[in-house]
Design brief:
about 200 residues; alpha+beta; Umud Fragment, subunit A; eight-stranded antiparallel β-sheet; four-stranded antiparallel β-sheet; 12 strands; about 30% strand; elongated
Length: about 200
């Protein structure tokens, strides 16, 4: 047998339950907004997405491919980085660090007739580049000053990099590329899957 609940008390129970449900709803909204704010903060300042709009890093990074970079200037030779310098560039660029402060970079023709990169006199193993560098008319050599880095594109024969702009500085580094999407959009807007 159900326990008798006076009408006034029953009404009070309904009001309490409605208040509880409304409070839960607003609490959930606040939690969702807070989570969204954290995600936006992470994607804006810590782990940032950017779309590549150049072919100078083929065959490892494609035009219209998205990459994520970690917002740091703690980078080293071999790292792929996003750079910006308003005196040299109109847009962000993506390049590979070849040498850092204190090191000497030399680009000279080898016995095979192609240009090669030397750092502190050591021939660099660059199996990642798209194709061999075309020969240079003059040997290029530079010793990097404090805080300077030397960057090149993997697609050496079309890349505009430190050979044209000169060295960059650590302060020009927006971040280190840590992940790339396994696809890009071709000129017709179709998705192309990549496996490298």
């Amino acid at each position: 047998m159900d326990k008798y609940v006076p009408p006034v008390l029953y009404k009070q129970k309904l009001v309490d339950r409605e208040t509880y449900d409304i409070n839960d709803f607003f609490k959930m909204i606040i939690e969702v907004l807070a989570a969204a704010a954290v995600i936006i903060l992470i994607l804006s300042y810590i782990f940032c997405p950017i779309r590549i709009q150049q072919t100078s890093m083929l065959p490892n990074y494609y035009n219209n491919q998205y990459v994520f970079y970690f917002n740091t200037r703690n980078v080293k030779s071999g790292d792929v980085v996003i750079l910006y310098n308003d005196a040299k560039l109109s847009n962000n660029i993506i390049k590979r660090i070849i040498a850092v402060e204190g090191q000497t970079v030399k680009i000279a023709n080898g016995e095979d007739g192609y240009a090669h990169v030397y750092v502190d006199g050591v021939l660099q193993d660059e199996s990642y580049i798209k194709e061999k560098m075309l020969p240079v008319s003059n040997t290029y050599e530079i010793t990097l000053k404090e805080n300077e880095i030397f960057v090149l594109g993997d697609n050496r024969n079309v890349s505009k990099d430190s050979r044209a702009y000169g060295p960059f500085e650590y302060k020009d580094v927006k971040g280190k590329v840590v992940w790339k999407t396994p696809f890009y959009y071709n000129e017709k807007g179709f998705i192309k899957i990549v496996f490298n």
